Amino acid sequence: MIRRQKKSRKLNAEINVVPYIDVMMVLLVIFMITAPMLTQGVNVELPQAGADPVDTQDNEPVIVTVDKDGNYYIDIGGDPAEAVSEDVVFERVSKVLATNPKTLLLVRGDKGVDYEAVVMLMTLLQQAGAPSVGLVTE
């Protein structure tokens, strides 16, 4: 009579981590390749302006609007629907900031207006003494 001997298997209680290390190395290589691509962004030509960085403040705002033709409108000291010159904007903002230096200034720019016109207005407001200028969006 032939007897079959059963092979006894020993239980292996260790976890094989080699596949996990392989996956981790592949993910590391993917992140190393894609990370520089995410930080570059879109290449645009920005206008130049001698403006200082602005700080944020919470106060009742004065709104200066730029339409698509580059005309300025201000909601204080006259008709808010009447276009005003840069000198008038400078004068009115200077007076408001002289009485209340914590007044928040906001710029509403039409989406068709040149970016440079908005930056020039923000620079004008900073020259008038505005510590911060915000942009209004919908």
What does this structure look like?
The chain has 138 residues and is of the alpha/beta class. 36% of the residues lie in helices and 13% in strands. The chain has three helices and four strands; from the N terminus they run αββαβαβ. It has helices at residues 18-40, 86-99, 115-127; strands spanning 61-66, 72-74, 104-109, 133-135. It has a four-stranded mixed sheet, with helices on one face. β1 (61-66) and β2 (72-74) form a beta hairpin. α2 packs across α3. It starts with 17 loop residues before the first helix and ends with a strand.
How would you describe the shape? rod-shaped
- Sheet-strand content, in percent, reads 5-15%
Distance between the termini: 92 Å
- Judged by helices, strands and strand pairing, the structural class is alpha/beta
Q: Kindly provide the radius of gyration, computed on alpha-carbon positions and rounded to a whole number of angstroms.
A: 32 Å
SSE order: HEEHEHE
Lateral strand order in the biggest sheet: 2-1-3-4
DSSP helical segment count: 3
What oligomeric assembly is this protein in? single chain
Query: What is the percent of helical residues?
Result: 25-40%
Number of beta strands = 4
On the 0-100 scale, what is the average pLDDT? 79
Characterize the biggest β-sheet.
4 strands, mixed
Unreliable stretches (pLDDT < 50, length at least 5) are none
